[in-house]
Each structure stands twice: as structure tokens, then as C-alpha cells.
């Protein structure tokens, strides 16, 4: 499995210093929509090798949740070169997540 389970302690290395774009899923065990998109994100992590997919449990890692102003779950943040270029909140279909990745990647390339 290519999904990375990151923590408050490893977020800097796993996400902010990553050599490729990173899709981060902020989730919690008690969140049914989070559980619904988890296998979709695992599929995407295995299918798209030019991005990383990270998951961070907000209960065990509240610091990142506060730092990135996560108010609803699941929250997906897309990072390029350590900066947020996209944000989505709520359970999305695989097609919607893939579209979000494409839009975020395109947006980051246009701003370079």
C-alpha cells in the first residue's frame, strides 16, 4: 500500500518537504464519511504514482488540525512544494477526488 500515515511529528518530512505533490486526508475513526473515502484514497495512492497520499488522524494529531484550520471531516488538502493549493471538505466520489487533484495540480503549475 502506498498510503502514508503521517503524524504531527512526521508531517514536516512527509508533506511539507515531499519531493512530489501530496494529497492529505484529515480524518477520524468516529467519522462515517471518512471511512467511506478511505478505500478510495488507498486506490488513488496505488494508481497515481506522481503524487503522495497521506492520512492524518486528527484525534491523535490535533496540532496539524489546528495549524491547517480543519473544521469539517474529512478534509482533503493538496500541497505542492509545502504550500496548500487546494482544499475540499466532505466525502467525495473517486471521480471528484481525481478532479480535485487535477484542478489543484493545474492551479499550482499556473502560479509557478
UniProtKB/TrEMBL annotation:
InterPro entries: Thioredoxin, Thioredoxin-like_sf, Thioredoxin_CS, Thioredoxin_domain. It comes from the Bacteria. The keyword Disulfide bond applies. The keyword Disulfide bond applies. Residues 1-106 form the Thioredoxin domain. Keywords: Disulfide bond, Electron transport, Redox-active center, Transport. Belongs to the thioredoxin family. NCBIfam families: thioredoxin. This is Thioredoxin. It comes from Candidatus Comchoanobacter bicostacola.
Amino acid at each position: 500500500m502506498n498510503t502514508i500515515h503521517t503524524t504531527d511529528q512526521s508531517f514536516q518530512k512527509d508533506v511539507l518537504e515531499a519531493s512530489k505533490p501530496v494529497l492529505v486526508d484529515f480524518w477520524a475513526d468516529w467519522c462515517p464519511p471518512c471511512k467511506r473515502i478511505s478505500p478510495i484514497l488507498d486506490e488513488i495512492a496505488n494508481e497515481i504514482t506522481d503524487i503522495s497520499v497521506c492520512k492524518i488522524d486528527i484525534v491523535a494529531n490535533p496540532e496539524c488540525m489546528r495549524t491547517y484550520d480543519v473544521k469539517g471531516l474529512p478534509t482533503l488538502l493538496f500541497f505542492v512544494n509545502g504550500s496548500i493549493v487546494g482544499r475540499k471538505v466532505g466525502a467525495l466520489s473517486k471521480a471528484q477526488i481525481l478532479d480535485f487533484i487535477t484542478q489543484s495540480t493545474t492551479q499550482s503549475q499556473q502560479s509557478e
